[in-house]
């Protein structure tokens, strides 16, 4: 289960789910493998600006940032959208992206100052309202957007997500205040010093007005504020094509003229196509084929740290698992080194904590 460092290989689970199950951590990912076929189609040659290339992908579920936590969708979304910040791959510290700064005096009330030159691919200006609208849509429970729980720490979240059988008290987070075009004030329900790190996740990307006029059409052809824009509609089960955005003024300048995500039914099928030279890059090499990838691709196979965690969750609503001593015994009985070696070919490492 090699995964890119930005996302787990499966949708993340709500915090409430992590609380209500007993998580027996099996293995935390030590690395993620990326391989290239060596037949890159970039016209200018390897390492030079311009040209196009293809990336193997499995079918995403959505391309609207707030509607998905799927790792395959996020590979595309990260090219289409700039979130407020990003994380330095070297040490994980926060770097400005769509935002110029994210600051707080008390860790509860945060001020997000945006870059004044941000624009969407359709020419619409990126404003604080663009972020507020996107976050409210994701946080509003009846919408059923997958990233909903990422907004649980913002004041007013319970009013948008009442208990079953009750109606929401509103459709906007009371903790969001648009001060002006480039200033968004975010009030959390409690102090949280790591809030800026959360803003690097794709769920916190802005959305233009078009995202709310026809959500289905937007999902097939999202309009973002990132270095790449859609080149035609998403052709389900076939491809998603992106091209370099001429209007992008941010810090992540596109090196390539375009990228096409070729969609495959499985990672194994994609890996076979990579070996045949029918695709240029695969970012998630199947764990079982990691040794083969290393032999086949040599220095074109790279290994990177990843944030994936696999775990065995036990349903605490079942009385059989409510005894913590039983859960502890099951956890102690798991041979983590054996699992990581036999199943994951040593590319994962045993977890010693949930964090």
The major sheet is characterized as: 7 strands, mixed
CATH fold name of the domain at 83-210? Dipeptide-binding Protein, domain 1
Distance between the termini: 19 Å
CATH class bucket of the domain at 83-210? Alpha Beta
The CATH superfamily of the domain at 83-210 is known as: Dipeptide-binding Protein, Domain 1
- H and E order: HEEEHEEEEHHEEHHHEEEHEHEEHHE
Overall morphology: globular
Q: What is the overall pLDDT average?
A: 87
> Strand order within the widest sheet?
10-11-12-3-13-2-14
CATH architecture verdict of the domain at 83-210 = Alpha-Beta Complex
What structural category characterises the helix and strand content?
Answer: alpha+beta
Query: Helix count?
Result: 11
Percent range for β-strand residues = 15-25%
The radius of gyration is 21 Å
Give the % helix: 10-25%
- Which regions contain 5 or more consecutive residues with pLDDT less than 50? 1-30
Count all strands and give the number.
16
Commentary on this structure:
The strands form four sheets. A seven-stranded mixed beta sheet has the order 10-11-12-3-13-2-14, sandwiched between helices. With 355 residues, it is of the alpha+beta class. The protein is globular. The protein has a domain at 83-210: Dipeptide-binding Protein, domain 1. Strand 10 and strand 11 (239-244) form a beta hairpin. It contains eleven helices and 16 strands.
Quick summary of this structure?
By secondary structure, this protein is of the alpha+beta class.
Key attributes of the depicted protein:
355 residues, alpha+beta, Dipeptide-binding Protein, domain 1, seven-stranded mixed beta sheet, four-stranded antiparallel beta sheet, 11 helices, 16 strands, 23% helix, disordered N terminus
């Amino acid at each position: 289960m090699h995964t890119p460092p930005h996302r787990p290989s499966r949708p993340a689970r709500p915090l409430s789910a992590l609380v209500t199950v007993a998580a027996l951590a099996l293995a935390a990912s030590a690395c993620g493998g990326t391989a290239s076929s060596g037949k890159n189609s970039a016209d200018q040659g390897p390492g030079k600006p311009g040209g196009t290339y293809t990336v193997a992908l499995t079918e995403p579920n959505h391309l609207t940032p707030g509607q998905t936590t799927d790792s395959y969708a996020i590979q595309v979304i990260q090219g289409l959208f700039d979130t407020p910040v990003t994380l330095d791959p070297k040490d994980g510290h926060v770097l400005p992206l769509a935002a110029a700064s994210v600051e707080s005096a008390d860790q509860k009330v945060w001020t997000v100052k945006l870059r004044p030159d941000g624009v969407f691919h359709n020419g619409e200006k990126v404003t604080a309202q663009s972020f507020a609208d996107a976050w409210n849509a994701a946080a509003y429970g009846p919408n059923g957007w997958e990233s909903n729980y990422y907004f649980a720490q913002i004041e007013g979240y319970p009013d948008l997500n009442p208990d079953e059988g009750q109606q929401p008290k509103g459709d906007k987070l009371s903790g969001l205040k648009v001060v002006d075009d480039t200033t968004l004030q975010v009030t959390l329900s409690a102090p949280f010093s790591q809030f800026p790190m959360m803003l690097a996740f794709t769920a916190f990307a802005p959305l233009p007005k078009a995202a709310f006029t026809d959500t289905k059409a937007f999902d097939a052809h999202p309009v973002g504020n990132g270095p790449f824009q859609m080149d035609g509609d998403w052709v389900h089960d076939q491809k998603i094509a992106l091209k370099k955005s001429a209007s992008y003024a941010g810090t992540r300048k596109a090196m390539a003229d375009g990228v096409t995500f070729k969609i495959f039914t499985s990672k194994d099928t994609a890996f076979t196509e990579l070996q045949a030279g029918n695709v240029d890059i695969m970012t998630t090499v199947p764990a079982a084929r990691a040794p083969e990838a290393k032999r086949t691709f040599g220095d074109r196979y790279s290994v990177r740290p990843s944030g994936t965690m696999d775990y065995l969750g036990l349903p605490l609503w079942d009385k059989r698992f409510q005894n913590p001593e039983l859960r502890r015994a099951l956890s102690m009985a798991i041979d983590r080194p054996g699992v990581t070696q036999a199943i994951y070919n040593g590319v994962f490492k045993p977890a010693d904590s949930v964090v």
